[in-house]
Write a structure and sequence with these properties.
Elements: H1 2-14, H2 37-52, H3 57-69, H4 73-86, H5 91-103, H6 108-121, H7 126-138, H8 142-155, H9 165-176, H10 180-193, H11 198-210, H12 214-229, H13 237-241, H14 250-261, H15 265-278, H16 283-295, H17 299-312, H18 317-330, H19 333-344, H20 351-363, H21 367-380, H22 385-397, H23 401-414, H24 419-428
Helix pairs in contact: 1-4, 2-3, 3-4, 3-5, 4-5, 5-6, 6-7, 7-8, 7-9, 8-9, 9-10, 9-11, 10-11, 11-12, 14-15, 15-16, 16-17, 16-18, 17-18, 18-19, 18-20, 19-20, 20-21, 21-22, 22-23, 22-24, 23-24
Length: 430
């Protein structure tokens, strides 16, 4: 806390200067004229809340987090410092303040102190320790980095993390300390689980080479090269960069993936936006971001991200599928139809896309085509009840009542009491 007290006057000045009473700084004033309307509204509202309650730490925290989310990093750091000074129990402010220290190249001791403060509030939050480990490793303190990664691994035990970043960190820290055999023991199982991950492959190949297991290292490298050549490059340099740069977006990417799994879409969107500031062409991060924005009902922003993907690759199947969903929901049925047709030429649709497509075709009274697409859906997902019920309704609307009744009976036998049953019965009773 003493360090924060010493820093606060400097940070307060960065955040807009002191108020007339000289006790608290004023929040920063930003030029919002060139911003997206939603962004400008969000930042203006957060600033207004601080002006209304300048002694409320949560208000300062919300403003700082909003500024960070929209890449006003220095302003965000300063406002979060004020929030922490007002209320040292605010974990989100304390943690993000620490992360910003790694991005803005603050002194090592200062950044470590910030992470220690965050860990004191939430020692059970794995990213606190993993981020600290990554920062320490890039700063040349492999021993302390190893301790941090091991703590991250310990507190994440039992949690459903799809990608074990702490285990990779342990392997990298061991390699940096010259403990090559233990590093390889850690990395080999991780590589078996994630054979296409370039960061894991690079670290394992390095360890095997140091152990003079040259043939095995060459096999790992060749396998990775083959995987890279056989797929569209999805910004893999993000994870490669994490091998040497603590401010790489790899940790943001991993955190974003985990947040999507936990349906924490607002936080996930922030992480993927940070990835894109480092790797603008990362297709996967942009699609993840668009998906999170769709879940948040921030539709214009989601559409802009998907359009950016298509500007790079006009036949990107995922972008076309997601735009099809947006267009079907918004009533742009012709556009939805065009997007789904691009996808179906190359790959099958999932159930959600099929349902949106059939609904769009029905909304345009193109019932014969809707029935054709339903048949394709049923062939792809024979156990799904939704296409069976939709088939009954489409047959009725196409004027084929007897077939519709038979189809409805078959659907009810497949899934008695399904939520779509009542809707189908109402339509067929007309």
């Amino acid at each position: 806390m003493r360090r924060l007290l010493l820093l606060l006057p400097v940070l307060a000045a960065a955040c807009g200067g002191a108020d007339p009473a000289g006790s608290l700084p004023t929040p920063p004033v930003l030029d919002t004229s060139t911003m997206e309307p939603l962004v400008a509204e969000t930042l203006s509202a957060a600033r207004a809340a601080v002006v209304d309650e300048p002694a409320n730490g949560r208000r300062w925290s919300d403003l700082g987090l909003a500024l960070d989310a929209h890449f006003f990093l220095e302003e965000a750091e300063a406002c979060l410092a004020v929030a922490i000074e007002l209320d040292p129990t605010l974990f989100d402010a304390t943690y993000d303040h620490a992360v910003l220290g790694t991005m803005l190249e603050r002194e090592v001791d200062e950044v470590v102190a910030r992470f220690v403060s965050a860990a004191a509030l939430r020692d059970d939050y794995p990213p606190v320790h993993a981020r600290l480990g990554d920062f320490l490793l890039a700063s040349g303190d492999a021993a302390s980095s190893l301790n941090a990664f091991e703590r991250a691994r310990e507190v994440s035990a039992g949690l459903d993390y799809e990608y074990d970043y702490a285990q990779l960190g342990i392997g990298r820290a061991l390699l940096d300390q010259g403990q090559v055999a233990p590093a390889v023991e850690r990395l080999a199982p991780l590589h078996a689980r994630f054979p296409g991950d370039p960061a894991v492959a690079t670290a394992l190949a390095q360890g095997l080479t140091m152990l003079r297991r040259v043939d095995e290292a060459a096999a790992v490298t060749a396998r990775q090269s083959a995987a890279d050549s056989g797929k569209v490059q999805l910004g893999d340099r993000v994870r490669r960069d994490i091998m040497t740069r603590s401010r790489s977006a790899a940790m943001n990417f991993q955190r974003g993936e985990a947040m999507v799994k936990r349906r924490e879409f607002a936080a996930a969107a922030v992480e993927f936006q940070r990835v894109l500031t480092v790797d603008e062409g990362n297709r996967t991060a942009r699609l993840y971001l668009a998906s999170a924005l769709m879940e948040l009902r921030r539709i214009p922003e989601a559409r802009a991200e998907l359009t950016a993907v298509l500007e790079t690759s006009s036949t990107d199947l995922d972008a076309h599928r997601m735009l099809g969903l947006l267009d079907a929901e918004s009533g742009a049925f012709e556009e939805a139809d065009r997007h789904f047709k691009v996808v179906i030429r190359t790959a099958p649709l999932d159930d959600l896309a099929y349902q949106a497509w059939v609904t769009a075709l029905g909304s345009m009274n193109r019932w014969d085509e809707a029935l054709f697409r339903i048949e394709g859906w049923r062939a792809a997902s024979p156990s799904r009840p939704e296409p069976a019920f939709l088939q009954a309704m489409a047959l009725f609307n196409a004027g084929r009542r007897d077939e519709a009744v038979e189809a409805l009976d078959a659907a009810k036998a497949l899934a008695p009491g399904h939520p779509m049953q009542a809707q189908a019965e109402r339509i067929l009773s007309r």
